[in-house]
Amino acid sequence: MAWIQIRLNATNETAETISDELMELGAASVTFVDAQDTPVFEPLPGETRLWGDTDVIGLFDAVTDMAPVIDALKAMPELAQQMTYKVEALEDKDWEREWMDNFHPMQFGRRLWICPSWREAPEPDAVNVMLDPGLAFGTGTHPTTALCLTWLDGLELGDKSVVDFGCGSGILAIAAIKLGAQSVVGLDIDPQALTASADNAQRNGVEEKLTVYLPKNQPDDLQADVVVANILAGPLRELAPVISALVKPGGQLALSGLLVEQAEELRAIYGQWFDLNPTAIEGDWCRLDGQKRID
Question: For 166, which DSSP code?
Answer without folding.
Answer: T
